[in-house]
Amino acid sequence: MASRPGLLTDWPWTPLGSFKYLVLVPLVIDSIYSYAAMRDHEKLLVMALMVWRIVHSQVWISFSRYRTAKGTKRIVNKSIEFDQVDRERTWDDQIIFNTLVAYLAKVYLIGTDTLPFWRLDGLVLVALLHAGPAEFIYYWFHRALHHHFLYSRYHSHHHSSIVTEPITSVVHPFAEHIAYSLILVMPLVTTFLCGTVSIISIALYITYIDFMNNLGHCNFELIPRFFFSIFPPLKFLCYTPSKVVSVVALCFERRRNDGDDAQEKKSGGSRLACLGFDVIQSRRRSLWLDGSLRREDRAVKNGEVFVGGLSVFELRRREGIHIEIILKRLADTQSAPTETIIMEAIPSPVIVFETNLVPKDNSLASSHSPEHGSPFSNQIDYNEQDDGDGFMSDATANLTMSRGGRFHSLHHTQFRTNYSLFMPMYDYIYGTNDKCSDSLYETSLEQDEEKPDAIYLTHLTSLDSIYHLRLGSASLSSHPLSSRCYLLLMRPFTLMLSFILTFLSFRSFAFERNRFRDLTLHSHLLPKFSSHYKSQKQKESINKMIETAILEAEKNGVRVMSLGLLNQACNMHQLGEELNGYGEVYVRKHPKLKIRIVDGSSLAAQVVIHSIPVGIKEVLFRGQITKVARAIVRSLCQNGIKVMVLREEEHCMLAEFLGGHCMENLILTTNHSPMIWLVGDSLSNEEQKMAEEGTHFLPFSQFPPTELRKDCFYHTTPAMIIPDSAQNIDSCENWLGRRVMSAWRVSGIVHALEGWEEHECGLDVPMVNPHRAWEAALRHGFQPLVLPFL
């Protein structure tokens, strides 16, 4: 939302939430009736166009997230978090709005008349009107939106997203979308009045707008350079998504008490030099400062960064200037690189206004831009001030980015450049094009695919999990996996998509990228569902795909690969049906592997053990015997906690594993009274019904049990809360909550952080120091989930 929301900020159907599509139900019914009764197909075409626009945008979302996960030609090396995903979940509101407008136009303007299917003169006229009046009016309207009054009330909502995604292009307040619609509908209205409009011209023009909007807000460069080499004037007619600034700068906005620009430059340069900055540009009431600090001007002490002898958490008054800036702590930093860029430590734009240049005067007004998603937005007083010309300053741009860039994306960082819609020619005409666009565009195309340090290999679970992937629905993936009724309506499309994924995909692929400290973390997807792992026919192909993924990671220099969900499956009840024995098959087949294979069983077992409240004397065990189950039972029995087993078969297998040690604490029973149940995949509904009221179900398996009882507590599968320093976390892992990772995934991260050289895989491999992984995870900031209160 904008920093100071104005009138008509919210959409009319905002109170409906996820049921907002109900406003279109009357239109769907009327269009079907009109076609059945009067063979009026144009109303159906309006609804079909709406569906096409949704699918078109979703394809861009998936494609963009896939490319940014790989890292190829990525532009902004900054993370996307849940707050941006939540803010942009309304991207389809503009489609609903445009559908309503188009439908009303059909009913009240066109009526029973039928539009021609194709007219070339109308299509040419639409193109000319867009390049002329529409782009021209949009350019000046966009510049007006950057006036302080409109920016703070409307347009700042759009610029809250520094790292853009395709759907960022259409995330605006309602009033702003009304204005955009009035501008962009002019070519269509004109052709309608001239009698040259056609169905094709309407569909192509709307698709063109969607295509260019999505293209321009991708966080990777897409258009190859030969396009502009073959036809150089194309750069005036088509923008590209790249954005970057070659020198990251911090702009201190200053209030003038005198009219002497030269004196201001002189005083500003001398005052700010004490902070280790070099003034590289000075203009009315603003100074641009070089972000690179000299070695002698910075220091790191106890994980806290100092600049010019001053803490970056608070730059106190120095030589008559009082500046206060909140910066991000660089935790566990031992030394600073030669060319430290201070902007890397700034979580979001900071503007400091100086109200009085008189020495020993402490009066100031500090301005912070919380709409850019800072974690400190509630800690800083927000005091907006105009810089004199009425327009928002470039100072609101502060990013640490990779080099590269060309047009529209620069607008999200420079703010006073590149105002044009799709055709940059008006920026060239009026001098607002970014000067570094061409050279930085070339550099962005050269960025290679990112090499991860650790990979988490997972797979699809249910059919609906397709939409909960990060490559699926941005909104659904930001919430735990759950059944949703409206997904049943999409089941035919889901089945078709699942067929494409599982039968036409023969290798794993990256779908998520995270950062934690110095590690680059990737999540790769094996295009198989859980049901495939239960089929003997799929066993060979799945093992081959996992082996291929391991060898490719080995070739790319990946240090650790952790096997998630059923990629490490081993059925101890029927050993002949095991998949790969917790990864042991690959280690034996390739004994010289440098990459370390991790099944995560040690940490998963410790997470479950430490979830059991202190003072519990007995627990009930029920579930498939796995490596994690054996480790849990052994630890509990050794610590004097009685493990009561319901089934004789499971009791025999556990007793054989214990080998006579602590057997007095392993009890075969028919008693269902223990309040703590350790459950696995084979827990039945009938067994759940036998539990006492208030029983706590603690799963030790990869998959959670069915939550059958309303009077009992169901804990999540073994998982841990990730540290705040983990970046680019914008989706949930299956059924886990936000910023929660499964123990198997965390185990791979910890393995890479600690630099352990041994594999952690295999069923019969003894767990050496099983507490090591747990202690290391806690040391690195991972936290256990809280068990519901007993």
TrEMBL record:
Pfam families: CER1-like_C, FA_hydroxylase. The chain crosses the membrane at residues 21-38, 123-141, 182-208, 486-506. Keywords: Membrane, Transmembrane, Transmembrane helix. One of its GO terms (cellular component) is membrane. Its main location: membrane. It is a multi-pass membrane protein. One of its GO terms (molecular function) is iron ion binding. GO terms for biological process: lipid biosynthetic process. This is Fatty acid hydroxylase domain-containing protein. It comes from Brassica campestris (Field mustard). The lineage of its organism: Eukaryota, Viridiplantae, Streptophyta, Embryophyta, Tracheophyta.
